[in-house]
Each structure stands twice: as structure tokens, then as C-alpha cells.
Amino acid sequence: MKFFIVCPGGLEAVLAQELQEIVARPEIKALGRLAVDPAPSSLTGGVGVEGPLALSMAINLHSRIASRVLLKMADGPYKSEDDLYRQAKSIGWEDWFQSNQTLRVDITAQRSPLKSLNFATLRIKDAIVDRLREQTGERPNIDTANPDVRIQVHLTQHHATIYLDTSGEALFKRGWREEKGEAPLKENLAAGILRLTNWQASMPLYDPMCGSGTFLIEAAQIAMHIPAGALRASLVGSPNQSATSSWKQSVVETGFGFLRLKPFLSSLEKKNWRTFCDTAKTEMHRHQKDTVAISGSDINEKMIAICKANWQRAQLPGLPVVRQLDAIAIKPNVDLVQEQKGVMVFNPPYGERLAMKGGDSDRPHSFGDSKTASMQKRRTSREPLVKEPIDPKFATLLDQFSKQLKDHFAGWEIYVLTEDMGLPGHLRMKESKRTPLFNGPLECRLFKFEIRGRSDLQKS
Fold first, then answer.
1. Mean pLDDT (10-residue bins), the chain, 460 residues
2. Quick one: which of 52, 243, 258, 343 is 20 to 30 A from 376 by CA?
3. Using CA atoms, how far apart are residues 301 and 297, in angstroms rounded to an integer?
4. 187-228+288-459 architecture in CATH?
């Protein structure tokens, strides 16, 4: 069977690496013939894999970078909505789910000649409903909020591909985040960035603008061998989430989409799933007491509290090593590491406002003035990244931050995800590498800086 593993744009290469590691796991390798497509040279938004049905369960459980695991059901040429209807109706949907289950259909398109994607979506829904009604005498209902089954369709100029989604809710929703809405930095993008930094669990990691703790929690789970899907798979205790959590029902309680598809309910696939889960539990138990040199800080006291709460809901031991601190005063945590060299990674809230002293009542400051911030929010991924002017006072703050890095983080590698192409100039530092990434619809850059320190600079 053929699958397409969706990921944030720019992470295709590291996703391919991760998938190679997943298929090399002994319990997964035992499934039989497995193949991962080569990493694409352009932004394709994902990577293809081939293997038995159980492979999708393993990827859903273990992949930290994937957004969705899509099973290819059919593909072929099309010219009109009627062609899409016929293609969708030819698929034996009755073999995959019950007519009393709810359904959702989503379409993405590149250069499609169709005038209305909404009408195309409607025709595909009609085809699936008509097929099930003819085969079973009943029709499924549509539920766009919490469907049992999700169908994904991708259209190019002349070609249509229909997928069955095995993930359910997007995989970046790990199940530990309580606040409503999506985080500014999705968990799978954070995991992909950590892989791009080449950070290893034995190395110190520091986030000076940790916010809700996404980088820290992803890194801790990586270091302790906790799968990305651990909460959905009930490998750890259910997080103590409040009734107001918008993701609790769809992520923690309903789990993965494949759990509601007929072929995955066979005795063979249930056995495979138990094997994957049992092996993951054994691995987690072996690393549960591993020490990690992961720490962070944030100027906002409330964000520190949220970070600690998220850490506990992620079922990580103890509390994270985080503190309320202005970025211009940061230093390596000597209590965690013997050698003061490691990786710093952070995602400054570009296009949003930062509190200079923390808390809601304190005087705010922005990455750029209010007009620039508004322009940044409206910019689409098709528009070029530009160097934006910033407030002179914030330019002074960045200069102080740069001096702190040079004084106290010599030997460290600094990675910054930002929408502002002028950031290296604002920091008065020359980046050694820049990687294009997409944070949702926004095109960003991951800048890498190598801190040499003042003594090294004087020698050169």
C-alpha cells in the first residue's frame, strides 16, 4: 500500500530521515517490504512511503514531524466535477467504514481548472454517500468538527488523488496542550527544527523565549524516548485536562483515525498495534530515569506557569527547569551541564507583542512597530520575505541580547525561527545558515548563528 506523509513545508528532508529510522525499528521491519521515497528537492509538503497497512499505525505513533498519514485510495485524470464523482464512487468505501459513521472531505489544489473547490468537495461527498447508500441502504452524516472518518483529495491541473486519513486530528496535536486554539509554533514544526539543529539528548538545550514550552517538551520526550503519539495510544496516563480544553475530546479520548477504520480492527492488525505499543512502553521504561540538560526562560510569568502545566500534562517527570527572566540577562544553566556548550533554539513572537517586564499590565514591546506587525500578519506565503524596520528601542534590546550571547554562550549554536529577514542585521551577527520553513501559512527562516566569543574574535 502507498501512503503520503504530510509535514510542514521545509521539513521534507528531515521527515524522510525520520521515516527511515522508523521503518528500521525491528518490530516494524518485521512487517515485510517497506520503502521510503527519497527526500524531495522541492517543497512538496510530505514524503511517500510504501508498505503494509500496519506501517501507517507505526508512523502515526512514532513520527514527531508528520502532520498526517494518508492512505492512497485512488488517482487518475479529471476534467470536471463529474470525473471526481465517478472516481470517488468507484472506491469500496463500505470495506473501510460503517455507514453510521460521520464523514468529512477536504480538498487541496494546485493549478486546478475547476471554478469552485466547494462544489468539487460537495460532489465527492455525494459520491461517497451514494456509494454507501447503494451498498448498505444507509448513508453517513457529515461532521466537519469531529468526524469519525476523514477523506483528503489533492488536485493538480489534470490529476486527482484521493486519500483516506489514518491520523484523525492532525498529529501535531499531541494531547497535552490545554489552552484553546492552535499554538503559534506547532509541535511537529518544533520537532523538525530540533532535528535540523542536530541536537542530541546528551547536549544542553536552552530556549530563552520558551513561551508555553513547545521546544522543551518535544526535546524532553525525544530524550526520554516517549513517542509523539504516546497520549493518544494511552502509553502514559491521561493528562489532567480541564473541561474547557478544545482538544481533549478529539485527541486524547478518540485517539487515532485508524482506530475507526474496519481493516485496522482485524485480529492481525490489533496484534500488530499491541506489539508496537508494548515495544514503545519497554523503551520508555528503559529511559524513564535518564537525565536531560534542557532548560528555558521567558519574560512573562504567566507563560512560565503555562509551560510547567503543559510539562506535567505531557506526563514528563518533575517540573521543567524554567524561570522568569529577561532575554538580555540569560546565562547557561551551570546546574545542568558541566560543559558550557550546547544548542539554543527559540521562536521570537514576530508579528506579535512582547512584554518587556512580563505580565499583562507591563509596558509591551513589539518585534517591529504596530504597522509592521499588522503587515506581517497579512503577508501570505507567496509574498517575498523582506527586511522590516523595527522600533529603535527594540533594536537596542536586540543589541543587548547579542552582547549577552557573545559574552556567555561562546561555542554554542543558536537557532532562531523568524519571519523577519532582517534579524541577523538587528543582532549584528552573520548567520552561518538559513533554512526556509513554513509556520502554518507563513514563510519563515531558521537562522543558525555560531557564537565564537570575544576572545576568539580578537584573535581573528
1. 96 97 97 94 93 98 98 97 97 97 95 95 97 95 94 96 97 82 78 97 94 96 96 80 47 88 98 98 92 92 94 93 93 64 86 37 31 36 54 80 92 93 88 93 92 59
2. 343
3. 9
4. 3-Layer(aba) Sandwich (3.40)
